[in-house]
Structure of Acetoacetyl-CoA reductase:
Amino acid sequence: MTQRTALVTGGTGGIGTAIVRYLVKQGHRVATNYRDEAKADAWRKAMAQEGIEVCMVQGDVVDPTSCENMISAIHHKCGPIEILVNNAGITRDTTFHKMTYQQWMDVVNTNLNACFNVTRPVIEDMRTRKWGRIVQISSINGLKGQYGQANYAAAKAGMHGFTISLAQENARFGITVNTVSPGYVATDMVMAVPEEVREKIIAQIPVGRLGTPEEIAHAVVFLTTDETSWITGTNLKINGGQYMGW
Ligand code: NDP
């Protein structure tokens, strides 16, 4: 298997950490961004105890200049990025009639506009090298909508629109672009939801439990292999059967 350089944005989070671990296990050089030095240091130490070395670069996915600097620092330290996982994301839940402009913008900027900020400085190099794997981490709620998440559902649906356009533009350059849409996964984001709400969510999942970050990471790694060069523009739904629509 060819060793490649991968960037996972939000690699220090619940799902991101699992993706980083899986990509490292595949033998890749893996980079991620951080915003808070102390938090990054603690995470780096925890990973090092598992024998996992990660290239950590400061970067805020909401800020285009910060992203350009981050990509160029990774390029300098580990080589050109061949695998990109746009995973960083946030929620700011509230019903739309109470939503502030800031709550809307924060969510759209972090989940959707970040795809531009991070992918734009990477794509030209991938086209030149004629190989690339790009995976967007969207959400079940970008497919089915969700009460209290007009901002998040709009941003996550937009991510797949981005995927299918980028997939068409770059298919002839050996670059695949896909979306993974997780259902509810047992990370801090979901465990912060009140227990009674979580129980109601689980009741809607045919498999009868929340997903694990490893189950999402497994799918992401699958989409980054040489063998999946004919899979592009797909949206892989991983949700325990909660949403089975097309
Ligand atoms: P976490 O909150 O655990 O992790 C989010 C990561 O994104 C953190 O590393 C965080 O870094 C980073 N991040 C947030 N904002 C920025 C920013 N402006 N610039 C750079 N990094 C940023 O979330 P999850 O692991 O649960 O979620 C990962 C992805 O999966 C998200 O896109 C989420 O929407 C999606 N998802 C999650 C589901 C779930 O059930 N958990 C379900 C469906 C989709 P920092 O520490 O600096 O804040």
About this structure: The beta strands are 5-8, 29-34, 55-58, 83-86, 132-137, 175-182, 235-238. The radius of gyration is 17 Å. The chain has a mean pLDDT of 97. The chain is about 50% helix and 15% strand.
